[in-house]
Fold:
Amino acid sequence: MKIGILKETQKGEKRVSMSPNIAKQLIAKGFEIIVEEEAGTNSSYKNIDYVDVGVNVEKRGVVFKEAHILLKINPFDEEDLKLVDKGQVLISQLYHKSNPSLIQAIASKGATAFSLDAMPRISRAQDMDVLSSQNNLAGYKAVIRGAYEMTKIFPLMMTAAGTITPSKVLIYGVGVAGLQAIATAKRLGAVVEATDIRSETKEQAQSLGAKFISVDNEGEESEGGYAKEASEDYAKRQKEAVNKSLFQADLVITTANIPGRKAPVLITEEQVLQMKNGAVIIDLAAAQGGNCEVSKLDETILLNGVKVIGSTIAPESVSTNASELFAKNIYNFILHLTEDTNFKWDLEEEITDETLIVKDGDIRKK
Ligand code: NAD
Structure:
């Protein structure tokens, strides 16, 4: 079975879906791999690195023509689909619920498509979960970006010229990104506080050295370990509990999301106006509408001395690691879908069922 790795074409994307190191592991399992020329260049993988592990470097058209499985990170687009043939298997993130025309176009080609963002969030699927692997890096990079944007340093510093007090960091949302943000900010020496609607995150935040700001969440539901939309009452209680820390924070990182919904607004413009001069907000939920009322995706807004950065670029900005982890997720997924390099799809099995969006031209999930 031949796997084709395509160069990402989306603007700003630097990652590649398969690193040479993981390609080598797939080859050891008996797969053949071809890669589009320069596909890994922006992740610091050269053509020769792929060649060295037994991957053939080919022109784009050849990859489309020869591969049984086509791999990408971002959804296949119109230009890609012109080159897709009946019977080919596409694996990428497809965001199928918000992309019905793309799914229709794939189906009309008679192709098969798996969507990585549709991975069920169960323990068995953890090592195939690209949202987790990429969000983890996003949490790390958000802190680094924050440190760069701030006019203060993170740690306590005692010098002959005086003592510098540590920066205060506040994290909203203690999921995958939030936990890594806590860990990174702590390592850099900041005083870290965090809050989440799910009370089970308290212990996790504390184990990384953060102070947890508890908000009474009685009556708020969660589903399968994930948050549901909070009530107005909860939002009010949350503001009351968090405002003191928010108004003293030097860096605020927001990561709160509700699967399949717009992100909750946790910081209003009125709250931003009461924050410290020079404070920075990094809104990692900006692409889902934002946790801060003021933020705009891929923009930096300056409001009354507070910098509000709406950003989702984090995984791309650490493309070497992001590509390696993405590739490892794909490696596990391909092994899950195959036996001795042949497909064995059990449509009763949850991971296969949930991720298989189009099968031989038939749309299975809408
Ligand atoms: P997410 O990106 O959907 O949300 C981030 C955080 O925001 C969550 O912790 C959520 O509770 C919080 N949040 C939502 N609304 C909020 C509000 N109004 N106020 C404050 N916080 C709010 O979540 P995620 O990071 O993808 O994952 C959440 C949990 O699921 C994590 O604990 C993670 O360990 C687990 N998980 C499991 C798997 C798996 O088993 N395969 C995969 C991924 C994540």
Q: What stands out?
A: The radius of gyration is 22 Å.
